[in-house]
Write a structure and sequence with these properties.
seven-stranded mixed beta sheet, mainly beta, about 55% strand, four-stranded antiparallel beta sheet
């Protein structure tokens, strides 16, 4: 199983980025896909999640600015990030857990997002 995250980079405050996480080797529809992030010196933080049926939920700090979506045909989950702030700077990780379970089974390698002020 592989989760390959991409799309990170350097962006100015107020800008946008779209992250992608391509999943391979698992039955995509059986999994809840989640984006988490970790800033330097801080604990890992939940960002957004999406169920197989399309239901979504978000961390308080990103509500109204970020949108998570998934493409079942291509086994990809996206994170559209708008109105970025310097405090969004972090390594963003995608993770997968089976529907109905709390433990993550798989993690991607992370992609760095840097937002300059």
């Amino acid at each position: 199983v592989q989760l390959q995250a991409s799309g990170g980079g350097l962006v100015q405050a107020g800008g946008s980025l779209r992250l992608s996480c391509a999943a391979a080797g698992l039955t995509f529809g059986d999994y809840v896909m989640v984006w988490n992030r970790q800033a330097p010196g801080k604990e890992r933080e939940f960002v957004a999640g999406i169920a197989s049926g399309g239901g979504t939920w978000y961390g308080d700090s990103v509500k109204g600015r970020f949108t998570v979506s998934r493409d079942h045909a291509r086994n990809i989950v996206f994170l559209q990030m708008n109105s970025l702030r310097p405090e969004d700077t972090a390594v963003y990780y995608c993770a997968a857990r089976r529907t109905g379970r709390s433990q993550f089974e798989y993690w991607g390698q992370g992609t760095l997002v840097t937002v300059s002020s």
